[in-house]
Design brief:
The complex is a heterodimer of chains A (about 250) and B (about 550). Chain A is mainly α and about 250 residues long. Chain A has helices at about 1-15, 20-50, 60-85, 85-95, 100-105, 110-130, 130-140, 145-170, 175-195, 200-210, 215-220, 225-250, and one strand spanning about 225. Chain B is elongated, with a radius of gyration of 35 Å. Chain B has helices at about 10-25, 30-50, 50-60, 60-90, 105-115, 130-145, 160-165, 190-205, 230-240, 250, 270-285, 300-305, 480-490, 515-545; strands at about 95, 120-125, 150-155, 175-180, 180-185, 210-215, 240-250, 260-265, 285-290, 310, 315-320, 330-335, 355, 360-365, 370-380, 385, 410-415, 460-465. The chains are: A mainly alpha (about 250), B alpha/beta (about 550).
């Protein structure tokens, strides 16, 4: 229960500030802009499809609208998640409430899990606020629900990974700016590793396997791979464990 | 002041990380080795020169906890890597899509698993394009079932030399499959069906020779435009490594080199000598697929009785709406579920077969030694074979003389003893060559029967009471193509070709009016974000004034 209590406290602390809602508003503007412009482009392409079926024979909503849209939103989350995670522990240290938290009758694991869940709850709220976009598509077209589920699952998993990494950096420094720069830089590296890994050979395979991009592609097309799930679980688990070790270190000081 | 020997530690660590990275990327060399040696030397020098400080730090409480934390984190990372490696080895994909886009068709799995030669796939796509991703996903799924398939992605714009070597003229996508000296090429269509067909063509060395009977008013085998033509069916056969050649029975008889004969919807009847030619062909172990429309080729239909097949002069009608494709047309039947018998041609079909104006085709009454006849496709219990279908005045209800459901419409025959098929030999001299003087030889039923007829067991026959299910108009309906291709595959003993084939993806057009687009933009870019902005203002006001 303490995990959810901490998660709720964390979520409430975000929603009780105007900045939290403005971040949400900004995200919705960007996601909405991506969506409406991509739908408009698809509609234009569909006109070609009607007059030249050969050209558009391979065109479908899943590959040419939903997957690119979710891919773009994932990049936006890459920038927003570090800003959400930067304050998870840095803020406690800065406000000198860390000692209070550590002396509370909760385990370090509960603190770490609760904070991660709280931040993830805010991302879930952000993503839930975009559900009306594909719902309108269901009125006007026939998108594949499986691809929609896969797309949202991928966004949650990418966010959870970046948040866990950001939480680790936040626990390592009292400076939120340092935390956000480290998180964003590392997330960017994880993202572009997939590009660096394009090509043949063991190196390319290792780099691609390490990067986020390759593990998102399957979800974006409605295919959930066991290896992708394990990758995200391993990444989230590792960063959470590292955070746990770091927070435990405060008890030794 | 002490010399800053501690610099050697981070420097050594950086050099060793650089060594590891360079070794991964470049794979060795003197410069890489030099990095490793330099990093190691730095660490040794640091330990030697700054030993007392290292010792003091290592004995501190923070260092003890820090090293413990590092160890636990490293162990956690190792567990993660191990779990990921195991997951890669035992990977499994859950397909969330409604049309099972990420699940290979049965036949594709069989083809991939049956590959016995290495095939390299050169995929020329624009880098990171949707087409490239979709194609790579498809190849990956096939590779889960074979170790003989490798793929190399090539962007023709970035690698013009290779594009030139493989004669790539577009960056919209071209796939070249290479196995030894053999090549197959895909352009425009990179679907599962097209790729698997290319694999089949590449992997099975020789193609099967299928003879297409002509001369009886059949719709064109080379006509892929008119709805009644069989051009689409022939193209699919050719994609699956069959060579389709026309066979004019009346003038040429039936070539012994035909691995199977397809008789697709004759509208005029076969002459007796042609029917004897067919009998001789089957008695010699030949294989034939006979698609016969209701009311057509009545003498051929009756003659099929010698193979133990009862082809009736009726049209099967259905009273159960759930078994009809077009409501209001009781002759346009949908076959699914229990309509399929346990036979390789139909047993793996998951979908529906659609046939229109089908005549009943079942095993003939009475035991026929030497012939094994099995009905493999039948209608529901609420159907019947309407014999009065030609007369508009006849009320369309089942009466006592008519065959009532389930009505068989497709049978297979296996000849275990060719003596069961009576073949009329030529009354003329035995040296009559195939087709020689046939047109003038009236009354000689055995004129097209080879003089050196050598009966042997193994003949096969598939008879369907409908022909247009394989026409251009209907072959793409449900599993129609599977029934047709499976029948040919079963006739030529191609077990790899049996199964349910992938369906082509449908393009999805999306049309919005200008008003709808404006509404979408207003809601998604303005209205919904505005709600969040209002919430931010409320929170700000509450925090400031309440």
């Amino acid at each position: 229960m303490s995990v959810f209590h901490i998660a709720w406290r964390e979520l409430a602390s975000i929603l009780n500030t105007a900045v939290g809602w403005l971040v949400l508003a900004g995200f919705l503007v960007i996601a909405g802009f991506f969506w409406s412009s991509m739908v408009s482009f698809y509609v234009t392409q569909s006109t070609d499809l009607l007059t030249n079926p050969y050209a558009g024979a391979q065109m479908n909503l899943s590959d040419h609208l939903l997957a690119p849209y979710f891919g773009n939103v994932a990049v936006v989350l890459l920038m927003i998640c570090p800003a959400i995670s930067m304050r998870l522990f840095s803020e406690e240290v800065r406000q000198r409430t860390m000692e209070l938290l550590l002396t509370a009758p909760v385990s370090t694991a509960s603190i770490v899990a609760g904070k991660l869940l709280g931040a993830l709850g805010f991302v879930a709220l952000m993503l839930a606020s975009t559900l009306h976009l594909p719902l309108t598509l269901m009125v006007w077209g026939s998108p594949d629900v499986g691809v929609l589920i896969g797309g949202y699952a991928s966004l949650m998993l990418v966010s959870a990974t970046i948040l866990a990494m950001g939480m680790m950096f936040s626990a390592m420094t009292a400076n939120q700016v340092v935390a956000v720069v480290l998180t964003f830089g590392s997330a960017l590296v994880l993202w572009v590793l997939g590009w660096a890994g394009s090509g043949d050979g063991a190196t390319a395979e290792v780099l691609t396997g390490l990067g986020l991009l390759d593990h998102v592609q399957g979800f974006l097309t409605g295919a959930v791979k066991l290896s992708d799930l394990v990758y995200f679980a391993a990444m989230i688990g590792f960063f959470s464990l590292a955070t746990h070790q770091r927070v435990e270190g405060y008890r030794w000081r | 002041m002490r010399a800053p020997y501690w610099v050697l530690g981070p420097a050594g660590a950086i050099l060793l990380i650089a060594f590891g990275s360079a070794w991964l990327v470049l794979g060795g060399g003197p410069a890489v080795t030099g990095l490793g040696v330099a990093g190691g030397l730095c660490l040794v020098a640091w330990a030697w020169l700054d030993g007392d400080r290292i010792t003091a730090f290592s004995e501190s409480r923070g260092a003890r906890h820090g090293s413990g934390a590092l160890l636990v984190s490293a162990l956690g990372a190792m567990v993660g890597v191990l779990a990921y490696a195991v997951a890669i080895d035992h990977d499994h994909t859950w397909d969330l899509t409604q049309d099972r886009r990420h699940t290979l068709a049965d036949q594709s799995v069989v083809v991939a698993a049956g590959l016995d030669r290495d095939i390299k796939v050169y995929a020329f796509f624009r880098e990171a394009s949707a087409e490239e991703k979709a194609f790579v996903g498809l190849v990956d799924r096939l590779r889960e079932h074979t170790g003989h398939l490798t793929v190399e992605l090539v962007d023709p714009l970035r690698n013009p030399l290779m594009a030139e070597q493989y004669a790539i003229t577009t960056d919209n996508g071209t796939v070249v499959l290479v196995s030894g000296d053999d090549r197959q090429r895909l352009e425009a269509d990179f679907s599962e069906e097209a790729l698997v067909a290319a694999l089949v063509r590449l992997s099975s060395g020789a193609s099967h020779r299928i003879c297409w009977a002509t001369g009886h008013g059949e719709a064109g085998a080379d006509d892929d435009y008119e709805p009644t033509g069989y051009g689409a069916a022939v193209i699919k056969l050719e994609h699956h490594n069959y060579e389709v050649v026309p066979q004019a029975i009346l003038t040429d008889g039936i070539d012994r080199g035909c691995e199977a004969l397809v008789v697709a919807g004759p509208s005029s009847d076969w002459l007796p000598r042609e029917r004897e030619a067919l009998a001789a062909y089957v008695a010699e172990g030949g294989r034939a697929l006979v698609l016969i429309e209701a009311g057509a080729a009545s003498e051929l239909a009756v003659d099929l009785g010698r193979y133990g097949v009862d082809v009736r002069d009726d049209v099967v009608l259905e009273s159960d709406p759930s078994r009809l494709i077009a409501q209001g047309d009781p002759s346009f039947l949908a076959f699914y579920g229990d309509a399929y018998a346990l036979h390789p041609i139909v047993r793996d079909l998951q979908g529906m077969v659609g046939m229109r104006s089908v005549r009943s085709v079942g095993p003939a009454e009475g035991e026929r030694p030497g012939l094994v006849v099995q009905e493999i496709l039948s209608t529901s219990a609420s159907s019947w074979g309407e014999t009065g279908w030609r007369d508009p005045a006849v009320e369309l209800i089942a009466d006592g003389a008519e065959r009532v459901g389930p009505v068989p419409v497709m049978v297979v025959v296996e000849v275990t003893d060719p003596a069961a098929i009576e073949v009329a030999r030529s009354a003329a001299a035995p040296a009559v060559a195939m087709g020689e003087g046939v047109l003038g030889a009236s009354g000689d039923e055995g004129a097209l029967v080879p003089a050196d007829l050598a009966p042997e067991a193994g003949g096969r026959l598939v008879v369907v009471g409908d022909a247009d299910f394989a026409s251009n108009q209907l072959i793409s309906v449900g599993n129609n193509q599977d029934v047709f291709l499976n029948a040919v595959a079963w006739l030529v003993d191609e077990a790899d070709q049996l199964g349910e084939r992938p369906e082509a993806d449908d393009a999805q057009a999306l049309s919005l009016t200008v008003a709808q687009e404006v509404l979408m933009w207003l809601v998604s870019v303005l209205l919904v974000p505005l709600v969040a902005v209002v919430a931010a203002i409320i929170v700000m006001v509450r925090r400031r004034f309440l």
